[in-house]
Amino acid sequence: MRFGPHETSSDPPSWFEPVDFRARPRRPALTARAEPSRIAEWAAARCDEIFGDLRGGLWRFTEGIADVLFPGIGPAVGTARRATKWGPTLLGLNDGRGADVKIGLVGSENIGLWAIFRSRIGQSDHGPRPDWCADLPLGPLGTEGIRADAAAISAIEDVKPADVAPLLLVEPAVGAETRLLLRVDVRSHSGVVAVDAGDGAWQRRMFFTLVHPARRGVGHHEAYRVVCPVCGRRRLAQFRGFDVCSDCGWLHTQP
To answer: Which of 9, 94, 172, 177 could make an S-S bridge to 161, C-beta 3.0–4.6 Å?
Structure first.
């Protein structure tokens, strides 16, 4: 994984074209919405069937920037890297409900670090979204490295076409040079995952936010929540230090 662009409020960004950049043939423009058969296939799939091959990349990015977003967590992340039983867990919150918007988590309860994600099969995520769905710019690329004063941090990882095929309206060609771009806003801890299907065009495919509750050791919230205050449904998933709605993605963490 190559960590890339970062920005500060005081320094102008230094942009450049990647040294391995070369023109790629472009696909025809995608339709605004997926075909009904593709939507049905997506809705019936579990989160592990769609995102299982991307879990490692998202978690490596999370580990790499954790100490910038949550100062002091670095030693715990280092310990987790050496203990396989502390590896990332993938949980699909709305599996089995035929949802075309998938909501899930990748993370470790042992260190209390989670990436909560939301994704839709269509070209864009239509309709209302949680506040943590940040529409960060996807380009151009920038200088490498992570700074404590960074406003945004990104990384690029080469992936196999089969790894990202479930996220796309049109499957990439066999042998395509597919890539992932992960970008996070340091202040909000939220960002996007985009896919290059081999044509050089980035497609936003996931929104995510990173959570490390400060009071995770005290159990659930003092006021037990039964109904989501946003969508009114009764499918709140409760973890140590935070609640997340399995239907709309509403998130509440302990201060």
So the answer is: 172
Q: Name residue, tokens 């529409």.
A: 135
* Average confidence score pLDDT of the chain: 80
pLDDT band at 208 (very low <50, low <70, confident <90, very high): very high
> pTM for this one?
0.81
Query: Considering just the CA atoms, what is the radius of gyration of the chain in Å?
Result: 18
219 alpha carbon, distance to own chain's centre: 25
Task: Fill in the amino acid letter for 132.
Answer: W
Alpha-carbon distance 236 to 67, whole Å? Answer: 28
* β-pairing verdict for 202-211 and 236-239: unpaired
Q: Is 157 helix (H, G, I), strand (E, B) or coil?
A: strand
- Closest CA relative to residue 62, chosen from 239, 244, 211: 211
User: Which of 2, 10, 4 is closest to 149 using CA atoms?
Assistant: 10
* pLDDT tens per residue across span 211-232: 998 765 555 554 566 788 888 8
Question: Which one, of 143, 140, 115, 180, lies nearest residue 8 by Cα?
Answer: 143
User: CA of 55: how far to CAs of 180, 194, 232, in Å?
Assistant: 12, 14, 30
* Look-up of token digits 């995770």: 216
DSSP string, 54-70: GHHHHHHHHHHHHHHHS
Element (H, E) at 39: helix 36-44
